[in-house]
Design brief:
Shape: globular
Structural class: mainly beta
Number of strands: 12
Strand content: 35-45%
Largest sheet: 6 strands, mixed
Order of helices and strands: EEEEEEEEHEEEEH
Helix content: under 10%
Length: 191
């Protein structure tokens, strides 16, 4: 199922057996004359009903690859984005997410974007996809076709719980201020 910005789709209501998913994120670099390589980083903010993390451990990224409950595991930082297929992968186990967490916000940021003079206007073919880990079936794909320009962080999608069922929302919202601005939004002191 291919989604557009703002669309929502249920994940577990019609698939009660869906317990483990893989979130694959990918992108390509446009023509770029700078000297520094692009290093895009995916991350997940696990938030409670107030929209904030419960602790710094609820921020899963290259510096904290898994949640203490193992409900979210980031498989590692791809520093170049070269090659076909998913550039970074995050695994989610719905049955291990503590019950007081309601949203998984999936984001991509550019490492040292300001220093390297890089932004999402220089990125194309960005996407997020959700795969059933048990069957390998791609359930959802969201191609970010937005025209980004100066943004250095994007909230790509949200996986959220409503009435006990998990759903997916295609967000695609860009932000300036990179990872630090997202950390602040979700209640993490990035200093």
């Amino acid at each position: 199922m291919s989604l557009k910005k703002g669309q929502r789709v249920e994940l577990t209501k019609s698939r009660p057996s869906l317990k483990k998913i893989i979130i694959g994120l990918g992108w390509d670099i446009n023509q770029y004359d700078g000297e520094a390589d692009f290093d895009l980083d995916s991350s997940v903010f696990m938030t409670k009903e107030n929209g904030k993390v419960g602790s710094d451990n609820d921020f899963i990224f290259y510096g904290n690859l898994e949640h203490k409950t193992k409900c979210i595991i980031h498989t590692g930082d791809n520093r170049t984005g070269d090659g076909d297929g998913d550039d970074e992968v995050i695994k989610v186990r719905f049955d291990s997410i503590p019950s007081d967490y309601t949203t998984l916000s999936i984001s991509v940021t550019i490492y040292d974007a300001d220093k390297r003079l890089q932004n999402f206007g220089m990125i194309n073919n960005a996407y997020v996809r959700v795969v059933d880990e048990e069957t390998g079936e791609e359930l959802i794909r969201y191609d970010l076709s937005e025209d980004f320009s100066t943004e250095t962080a994007i909230v790509v999608a949200e996986i959220y719980k409503k009435n006990g069922e998990w759903k997916f929302k295609a967000v695609g919202s860009g932000y300036n201020g990179g990872l630090a601005s997202l950390c602040k939004q979700y209640g993490i002191d990035a200093e």
